[in-house]
Amino acid sequence: MSHLSTHIRVVGALLVREMATRFGSKPGGYVWALLDPAAHILLMTMIFRAIARAPALGTSFALFFATGYIAFQFYQAMTSYLNSAVRANKALLSYPNVAPIDTIVARFVLQVCTTTLVAFIVLGTIVATMRVDTDLHWPAILEAIAMACLFGLGVAMINAVLFLKYPLYEQVFNIVNRPLFLISGVFFLPDAIPAPYRDLVLINPLVHVIMGFRKGFYPEYRAVGLDMTYLYGIAFLTLFAGMLVFTLSRKTLRNE
Amino acid sequence: MIRFEQATKYARTKGIKKPIIEDASLTLNRGKSVGLLGRNGAGKSTLLRLIAGAIKLDSGRIIRRGKISWPLGFAGSFQGSMSGEQNVRFVARIYGVDTEELIAFVEDFAELGPFYKAPVSTYSSGMKARLAFGLSMGVNFDYYLVDEITAVGDANFKKKCRAVFETKLKDSDVIMVSHSTKTIRDYCDCGVVLEKGRLIYYDDIGDAIRVHDKNMKGL
């Protein structure tokens, strides 16, 4: 029996297990994975329509927030779900066939599919119901999504190990990660921030994710400061670090 | 065949480091069932998990020829939020056996009734053990790793376990941990005594039990 076919079988079994149990206790089940972000965007759109006159880009509040929120979700939902991938499947790791990496791969696949589905439903609905036609620039959209997912995967792999080894780090990470939503440019355009502060905001790779993603929806958006090379660099570096830490700690991941 | 080559494993909990095995070398051949003896807390269960590959050695290696089961114990390898049936389905998938066949076999064997479709977290320890035993008997292995699980259920169930186990033992071997020397004597041909991080093999299970009893008295 080859190792690869075992991994594929295990990942498949874990996928089914995650689908069945993630929302298993609630009525509606998996539908909540789609409904939750959709409801969030709807609520935010309503709030901001009430307090601001026009969105920073284009004419649709809904499209502006949805593009920011969903691009951010490709990272945020990924890490928050993957951080606990190993821990949540601890009991199943007593089957020698199941490797810690399988739990990560299964959740990664499931989360990419889930957020993509959310993106199609939410953004599809918004674009279809808008009065103005929107030209989608797919390469920019896919590039931003890919980088957000890989960056999220890298962060989650590092976290999976460090959360186990240093519980204190988990607290610190959560404190730092929480305001990320506010400073990543979901609500504002980094282009509009004055010079010295803009450079600070641009350190955050997620700002580049959101700018790149929006470029795919707003052809007229210039995205001043967007640096895809920087984003690629950070994403792959993080992923590499994650894989390294994960591989070096396989004993800890198994024993815990 | 299972071979330990200079295998070393320490148990670490909250800064306490205790050897389970230190530089142990040992070969267990096919065709003989092994009883694993050792005092309480010596690390017998950990040793079974090492053999299964569910945890890793600190150094050295274990060479395994043949299909080895997961360690079958009370602690259970079940995901509490999934039902018994879902857990069975999961195992069928990861070991590549026919899903429906295994589900039907375990349903019939474990006698869980309607609880088969309830989350495992609602099970009593006896129910979990029945599920675990039925499940592993439904998958074919060359080695079954058994951790104190043969004495579950009522007399009727025990009889059933014994019958199915004995058919399995025609083609498979068992590596067994039990505090009941009678059970060990019934099932095993040879013995390994785990004492102070050393593994000592005895070709005759009677010898192993005698040494073990002496160890226990000399506390």
TrEMBL record, chain A:
Q: Name one GO biological process term.
A: lipopolysaccharide transport
Identify the InterPro entries for this entry: ABC2_TM (IPR013525), ABC2_TM_bact-type (IPR047817), ABC_2_transport (IPR000412)
- Coiled-coil segments, which residues? none
In Swiss-Prot or TrEMBL terms, this protein is called Transport permease protein
Ranges that cross the membrane: 29-48, 55-75, 104-128, 140-163, 175-193, 230-248
What GO molecular-function term can you cite, just one? ABC-type transporter activity
Q: Which UniProt keywords apply?
A: Cell inner membrane, Cell membrane, Membrane, Plasmid, Transmembrane, Transmembrane helix, Transport
As for subcellular location, the record says: Cell inner membrane
What membrane topology is given? Multi-pass membrane protein
Q: Name one Pfam family in it.
A: ABC2_membrane
Q: Lineage of the source organism?
A: Bacteria, Pseudomonadati, Pseudomonadota, Alphaproteobacteria, Hyphomicrobiales
Location (main, coarse): membrane
Domain of life of the organism encoding this protein: Bacteria
Q: Which GO terms describe its cellular component?
A: ATP-binding cassette (ABC) transporter complex
Q: Which family does it belong to?
A: Belongs to the ABC-2 integral membrane protein family.
Automatic annotation (TrEMBL), chain B:
What Pfam families does UniProt report for this protein, alphabetically? ABC_tran
Keywords on record: ATP-binding, Nucleotide-binding, Plasmid, Transport
Among the GO molecular function terms of this UniProt record, one is: ATP hydrolysis activity
Task: Identify the domain of life.
Answer: Bacteria
Query: Which cellular component terms (GO) are annotated to the entry?
Result: membrane
Its family remark reads:
Belongs to the ABC transporter superfamily.
Listed name of the protein: Polysialic acid transport ATP-binding protein KpsT
Q: Per the UniProt entry, what species is this protein from, by scientific name? A: Sinorhizobium americanum
Gene symbol here is: kpsT
